[in-house]
Design goal:
Blueprint: E1 5-14, E2 21-31, E3 37-43, H1 45-49, E4 68-70, H2 78-82, H3 87-97, H4 106-112, E5 121-124, H5 142-153, H6 160-166, H7 172-189
Antiparallel strand pairs: 1-2, 1-5, 2-3, 3-4
């Protein structure tokens, strides 16, 4: 029996110069029997009627009422994928959901990712505007966040409230490793330093 599956996410955008987040589009991703993912993206009629509507990507996702299809990036348009979590954020989501990467689809990462991604985009499985998960970044608990990141790398469980903060630290582990390499490189160049 040939079966396909389809998942969807509503795409919200924070309008430029405002704090208003409005529904902009619907993204449906169908996984075909051969594993190919076909994404179908369409702006909503009400969004298109807005005088302040903006294209999420003027080249790949120009404003208009046509359904646009994508097969690259597992059916996710590039501008939408960019608003999703980075590699570290994906690991945090996998840890939070207690699922392996093979058990999750790209839509799962969008729906469970941070709500402050690139392009002021957020995602929801329904038309209710997603409520902010937090009021602001609370990086004053840096020691706890570092310990939690190390626990995730070791496969240990981390409290939910710490996971929510870790989701929002895009690229920080990569940058932290880069800083360490740069510091040791500088130390090798300074006479008398190791």
């Amino acid at each position: 029996m040939n079966m396909t599956s389809e998942r969807q996410a509503y795409v919200y955008v924070q309008l430029p110069g405002t704090l208003d987040t409005v529904p902009a589009a619907l993204l449906k991703v169908e996984t075909l029997t051969d594993g190919t993912c076909v994404g179908r993206f369409r702006y909503g009629d009400r969004y298109l009627e807005r005088t302040d509507a903006i294209a999420l990507d003027p080249f790949q996702l120009p404003l208009g009422g046509n359904v646009q299809e994508f097969t690259k990036l597992k059916g996710i348009p590039g501008a939408v994928r960019d608003a999703g979590p980075d590699a570290w954020g994906r690991r945090v989501i996998e840890h939070k959901l207690q699922r392996s990467p093979g058990d999750l689809e790209e839509i799962d990462y969008l729906l469970n990712g941070p709500q402050d991604g690139a392009g002021y985009l957020t995602f929801s499985s329904n038309l209710d505007t997603p409520a902010p998960k937090r009021r602001y970044n609370r990086t004053h608990q840096l020691t706890d966040l570092v310990a939690a990141a190390e626990a995730i790398e070791e496969g240990k469980r981390v409290p939910e409230e710490i996971l929510e903060q870790l989701e929002h630290l895009h690229g920080w582990r990569k940058a932290q490793g880069h800083d360490r390499r740069r510091q040791s490189s500088v130390a090798r160049q300074v006479p008398g330093k190791k």
